[in-house]
Write a structure and sequence with these properties.
- The protein is 21% helix and 32% strand.
- It has 190 residues and is α+β, with helices and mostly antiparallel strands.
């Protein structure tokens, strides 16, 4: 299994600002056939109801482990809180409704699987192909895996060129959204 390097480029308490940053970054990517993956931890019935309204077929299991409740077993997730939710390969249009359904009692990562990061000749940046072109918004969390719950939200860009060097691209993308790369990188399995 290979890994992607996810660089944190913007952390903000303003979810609207984080979503604007994501939209800006998506506009600089080839995202015509992009799909979205969801992972999260939900702790309240209200948030669970909102999320299930947006994604009714969302997979889940009790945070305590699948034997304590899961979608596969046909259990009621409201009786198994907190629950870990996940779904993959959804249309991009599902992303913002899912994000807006979350509450501060939850934490989630929404990952856009892009077709590519487009070349930026004026910055000396070549195209980064689909294998390493991702964008993740961590909602109410600072990390990809909901291990650092937080009142704020973090935008991560995943990039890697044929030499494995991604720093110039990360700095350029951070500059587009008024963020900065602090050197914080997390490995993400692909």
């Amino acid at each position: 299994m290979s890994n992607s390097a996810a660089a944190a480029i913007l952390t903000t308490a303003d979810l609207s600002a984080a979503l604007r940053a994501v939209r800006t970054l998506l506009s600089r990517a080839d995202a015509e056939h992009a799909e979205v993956d969801f992972e999260g931890v939900i702790r309240s019935r209200d948030t669970l109801a909102r999320v299930r309204h947006v994604l009714p077929d969302l997979e889940w299991h009790a945070r305590a482990g699948e034997r304590h409740g899961s979608a596969e077993a046909g259990d009621d997730p409201a009786g198994c809180l907190p629950v870990q939710v996940f779904d993959w390969s959804r249309p991009q249009a599902c992303a913002e409704p899912f994000i807006e359904a979350l509450g501060p009692d939850s934490a989630a990562a929404v990952r856009w699987d892009l077709d590519a990061w487009r070349p930026v000749p004026e910055a000396g940046l070549g195209e980064i192909g689909q294998k390493y072109a991702y964008l993740t918004l961590s909602v109410y969390s600072r990390d990809l895996y909901q291990e650092e719950p937080s009142p704020d939200h973090t935008v991560h860009v995943h990039v890697r060129d044929h030499d494995g060097d991604h720093t110039d691209r990360v700095h350029w993308l951070a500059g587009l959204v008024g963020g900065r790369f602090t050197g914080r990188v997390q490995g993400a399995p692909l």
